[in-house]
Amino acid sequence: MLARPAVVPLAAVLVGALYGAELAIADAPLDVAAPAVAAGLLLSVELGYWSIEERGRWSGEAGDSLRRGGLVALLAVGATLVAAALLALVDAVRTTGLAVDLVGAGAAAAVLVAVLVLARSQPSSGS
Fold first, then answer.
1. Nearest Cα to 65, choosing from 109, 124, 6?
2. In the prediction, which pLDDT does 122 show?
3. CA 54, CA 10: separation in Å to the nearest integer?
4. What is the pLDDT of residues 23-39, one digit of tens each?
5. Higher confidence at residue 120 or residue 69?
6. Distance from the Cα of residue 27 to its chain's centroid
7. pTM for this entry
8. CA 82, CA 86: separation in Å to the nearest integer?
């Protein structure tokens, strides 16, 4: 199988869009599982990129995998906390309307993109 880094974010966007569509169809007030979904998407993207990077011939230093695994786990916990805070904020505001929904979805997507960009821009000792 060929390593295709461009497919990793496309898959995450597809899964996120399907999740959002399911929430829209179900017309549920708030999904308390949303922070877990956000963390799962972040983990899938990070682990997807990591698996592509591991295909290279460079072996790295001892302990690099443990450090990177810890960083990925920390990012997942951070994504869960940020998503839970956003969910609590949305629950507190309780405004309705399509425009508000679009702004909230855009803000959540921006937070996820910011976390991914920050994670990808961090210099690692193995790169």
1. 124
2. 64
3. 20
4. 888 877 778 888 898 88
5. 69
6. 23
7. 0.63
8. 6
